[in-house]
Amino acid sequence: MYERAAELERQGRDVIHLEVGRPSFDTPPHIKQAAKDALDAGIVHYGDLRGTETLRDAIADDLNRRHGFAIGADEVLITTGLTQAAFATFMAALDPGDEVITLEPLYPQHPPKIELIGGSVVSVPLVKEDGYRLDAGVVEAAVTPRTRALLLVNPANPVGRVFSRPELEGLADVARRHDLLVVSDEVYDRIVYDDGTHVSIATLPGMWERTITLFAFTKAFAMDGWRLGYAVAPDPLISQVLRVTLNETTHPNVFAQEGALAAILSPPETVEEMVAEDKRRRDLVFDRLNAMPGVSCPRPEGAIYAFPDLSELGRTSMELAADILDRCLVATEAGSFYGASGEGHLRICFGSEPYDRLEEALDRIEAYLSEGPG
Question: How far apart are the C-alpha atoms of 228 and 329, rounded to whole Å?
Answer without folding.
Answer: 32
